[in-house]
Structures are given as C-alpha cells and as structure tokens.
Amino acid sequence: MPSPLLCLHQVTRQFSRRTQPAVCEVSLSLPAGDLLALLGPSGCGKTTLLRLIAGFEQPQNGTIDIAQRRVSGNGHWLPPEQRNVGMVFQDYALFPHLTVSQNIAFGLDRSSKTAKQVKDALALVNLTGMENRYPHQLSGGQQQRVALARAIAPRPALILLDEPLSNLDAQVRLRLRHELRAILKAAGVSAILVTHDREEALSIADRIAVMCNGYLEQIDTPEYLYQQPASRFVAEFVTQANLIPAQRQGDVWQTEIGTIPITLTGNCDRRDAVDLMVRQEEIVLTPVPTSQILIRDRQFLGREYRYVLHTPSGREIVARTPTNTYLAVNTPVQLEIATQKLQLYPKT
C-alpha cells in the first residue's frame, strides 16, 4: 500500500494558555491524488489546521509529514517556501499591477520552461486568451481560476485552498464547484479545501474531515459521513438531521411523533432514554385532523418543499418532501419514518 502524501499525528496548536487549543491532537492522512475537505463552523480550527500544514503556524505538539518528508515536529521545521505546497487564499491575493500570465509566473523559476508552465496552467483553468488581462478586468470566478492556476503552475505536491469560493455569488459558486474538482483532478494534485459549506464539501471532496472546537470529529467519504455520522455534532452539522427524544417502553421507542419499534433502530444499546436521528428527507407527512403536530412554515425550494413542524412540546422538526406533497401551513399532520436504519445517540 503506498504511503500517504500527507500525514498528521497528534497535532496541537494553542495560542494562549487561558484558552482551549485551536487544534487539539488531530491525526489524519491524505492519499496522493485525493481531495480532502476540512469542514466545520467558524472557529472550529479548520483554517488554523490548514496554516499548520502550510507552515504559517507552528504546532506545540505532533508531527507533520508531506511527501514522506518531516516538515514539522521532533526537532524538524521547514518554512512554507520549502514545503512544496501551493496556496489559494480566500481573497485570491492577485497582484493588481500584473497581468494574468505575470501573476501565474510569479514565484516560478525564471527558465525556458516558464512560458510553457504558464500556458499549460492557463489551459487547465480554461483561461487561454486572457493572459494579458489584469485582475480588475476579470470576473470573480475568473480571478479564482487565476489564483488556482498560480498554485498549480509550480506542480506542488499539495495544494491548500482556504474558503476559495466564499467570495463568489451563489450562481457562480455552484458552477465553480464542479470546475474546481475537475481542474484539480486533471492536474493530478492532492488538495485540502477549507469550507463551512456542507454541500460544497460533499460535492467536491473525496474525503471530509469534520472539526468541532479544535477536535477532529470524523473523517470519511462524503457518502459514509452522511449515512453514518459518528457523533451528534456530525449528525446535526453535516446531515442536518432531527434529533428526537425517545423513551424505551418495552419493545418500542416512545416519542412525540409516535411509537417506533426498537427492531427498526440500528446501533441499539441498553439505554432507556436516547435521541433518535431522523433525516429531513426520511419523514413522510400525512394530514390527520386529530394530530397535535402542526405545519408552521412551508418553503418551496424548486425540487422539494421544506416543512417546519411544531410538536405539542414546542419542539421544531424539519421535513423535506417531493413537490407532489403540498400541505398548507397550520395543517395537522402525522409523521412516519421511511427508513429502517435509524441511529441513536445518548441524551446530553
């Protein structure tokens, strides 16, 4: 089995003794050619972890290896310029007084190969013919591709991208998700993408590392992460699931939305009180005049409806249904769960 391109072992970075570590004992590896997304809310440590890999920050503990070379830890330290890593910043960091080709060539060794490297990078990001334009003459999406071309041109072992699509409008961002993945795969480079957008991470990455409060909660493929969240946080942040309190009563779980046979739950244990994870798309709504669960809001999202439901206790439950399920606000409904793979988590 080939060695991973990137290997982090128990990496910790703490900025002040009075605060918890920004990154705490994170261990992960990245196979060559894979795209990894660091996903989590603001302040979870994902950008700090990216800066540790790049060499902009130095960890107090742990080791970092890139391309089988120790770059940090155990007495080793290599500055950013010696790590063979490319960087795409959130604001692109293009030089306004340089043309597209000059921006891409910046940092390359001046040699007979430079012009070809620039030409190849332009072709890779579909900007051939724009080499003499200046950044202010480009759209936001084009500027992002110039920044990516500049990172790819030196053919680094690893490319790091810090929220590269966050400054773009929604339509451009959706289009560039596919382009970004296609460009990186065509270049044959490994990459790490920092994002707080779950859909962005799910659509671009081969693997996703979910972070919370400096800790690595789970690292898996997008499919497995969505289907088998390892913690309550992953279930809520990535899957955006409903967590419904349940009490064991004989052979069923008793909940506000009805009774659920215990045989339907995967991951069962002996606890009498748990929270059941129910994904929004797994809920089937049926109008029942005697039900105490009411629709409080309905949002049309094009391909589906998003319903916000209120239970008798005031709990909010979200359901997503096909557009052939049209129910008015304030309609009392009964909920059914269309799955036999429910997960449960201990009550907090």
From TrEMBL:
<keyword id="KW-0997">Cell inner membrane</keyword>
<dbReference type="GO" id="GO:0043190">
    <property type="term" value="C:ATP-binding cassette (ABC) transporter complex"/>
</dbReference>
<dbReference type="InterPro" id="IPR003439">
    <property type="entry name" value="ABC_transporter-like_ATP-bd"/>
</dbReference>
<keyword id="KW-1278">Translocase</keyword>
<protein>
    <recommendedName>
        <fullName>ABC-type quaternary amine transporter</fullName>
        <ecNumber>7.6.2.9</ecNumber>
    </recommendedName>
</protein>
<keyword id="KW-0408">Iron</keyword>
<dbReference type="InterPro" id="IPR017871">
    <property type="entry name" value="ABC_transporter-like_CS"/>
</dbReference>
<dbReference type="GO" id="GO:0015408">
    <property type="term" value="F:ABC-type ferric iron transporter activity"/>
</dbReference>
<keyword id="KW-0410">Iron transport</keyword>
<keyword id="KW-0067">ATP-binding</keyword>
<dbReference type="InterPro" id="IPR003593">
    <property type="entry name" value="AAA+_ATPase"/>
</dbReference>
<feature type="domain" description="ABC transporter">
    <location>
        <begin position="6"/>
        <end position="238"/>
    </location>
</feature>
<dbReference type="Pfam" id="PF08402">
    <property type="entry name" value="TOBE_2"/>
</dbReference>
<dbReference type="GO" id="GO:0015418">
    <property type="term" value="F:ABC-type quaternary ammonium compound transporting activity"/>
</dbReference>
<dbReference type="InterPro" id="IPR008995">
    <property type="entry name" value="Mo/tungstate-bd_C_term_dom"/>
</dbReference>
<keyword id="KW-1003">Cell membrane</keyword>
<dbReference type="InterPro" id="IPR027417">
    <property type="entry name" value="P-loop_NTPase"/>
</dbReference>
<keyword id="KW-0472">Membrane</keyword>
<keyword id="KW-0406">Ion transport</keyword>
<dbReference type="GO" id="GO:0005524">
    <property type="term" value="F:ATP binding"/>
</dbReference>
<keyword id="KW-0813">Transport</keyword>
<dbReference type="Pfam" id="PF00005">
    <property type="entry name" value="ABC_tran"/>
</dbReference>
<keyword id="KW-0547">Nucleotide-binding</keyword>
<dbReference type="GO" id="GO:0016887">
    <property type="term" value="F:ATP hydrolysis activity"/>
</dbReference>
<dbReference type="InterPro" id="IPR015853">
    <property type="entry name" value="ABC_transpr_FbpC"/>
</dbReference>
<dbReference type="InterPro" id="IPR050093">
    <property type="entry name" value="ABC_SmlMolc_Importer"/>
</dbReference>
<dbReference type="InterPro" id="IPR013611">
    <property type="entry name" value="Transp-assoc_OB_typ2"/>
</dbReference>
